[in-house]
Design a protein that fits this description.
Elements lengths: L1 H37 L9 E4 L16 E4 L6 H4 L10 H12 L3 E6 L4 H4 L17 E3 L2 E3 L12 H14 L17 E4 L22 H7 L1
Parallel strand pairs: 1-2, 2-3, 3-6
Antiparallel strand pairs: 4-5
Length: about 220
């Protein structure tokens, strides 16, 4: 009789523990499903635009039927978002770009620039563009861009760069962990750098220079 009581008690305890565990698992699944239901991928069409994100209200892109936006350069830049190695990452401007695109149901293709002057200064002039470079921060009529830093080679501190890059992707991936508040559609596509073969005008210091390192190092960066 005692054995039956003991076995029954163990069975009851076991069932109780199982139900508690199952409840926790189901709760986690419920939370994950809620996150998935709150995020969605916008319609994937055949074309889009490369535009200044700040003036997107004036572009009337949504009237064209486009479903993609590639924001202009100067936003998703390491040195723009993180002013020094131990400084917090500032997502305020990139969040604005994402929010503006979301309002119009536009998917985003993000161009990432791995440049930060504080990280590359020790490389010297071989990695520095001239003061006349067209991609430096400046205003052009009604168009204003935060631009790119002076130094444009591969990162010097790869660990710091990878931390920034990981935090950036994590913020907009829509998995419910460290996401931007109000994220509607995850960002899946990133381009590392842009047109690395462009060089300055041979007759002067003007031009667009997006990369000053070697082809081999660009492959390493990718």
């Amino acid at each position: 009789m005692k054995k039956i009581v003991i076995i029954s008690a163990l069975v009851i305890i076991g069932l109780g523990l199982f139900l508690i565990h199952s409840s926790g698992v189901l709760k986690n699944i419920s939370v994950e499903n809620k996150i998935k239901n709150e995020t969605k991928t916008f319609v994937d069409g055949n074309f889009g635009f490369f535009r200044d994100a700040e003036n997107i209200d004036q572009e009337r892109i949504d009237e064209t039927g486009a479903t993609w936006l590639r924001p202009n350069f100067g936003y998703f830049v390491w040195g723009v978002m993180q002013k020094e190695e131990k400084a917090p990452i500032d997502f305020s401007e990139t969040d604005k770009v994402v929010i503006q695109a979301q309002k119009r149901g536009l998917n985003l293709l993000i161009t990432i620039f791995p440049f930060a002057d504080w990280d590359q200064k020790e490389y010297g002039n071989k990695c520095k563009v001239s003061a006349n470079d067209e991609m430096l921060p400046r205003s052009k009529g009604n168009f204003k861009t935060p631009g790119l830093p002076y130094y444009r080679c591969n990162p010097n501190n790869w660990i710091a760069y990878e931390k920034w890059l990981t935090a950036l992707v994590e913020r907009y991936d829509g998995d419910g962990k460290d996401d931007m508040k109000g994220l509607l559609s995850p960002i899946f596509y990133y381009e590392i750098g842009n047109e690395p073969d462009l060089t300055k005008d041979s007759k002067g210091d003007f031009g667009m220079v997006f990369y000053l390192d070697t082809p081999e190092n660009y492959a390493k960066l990718l």
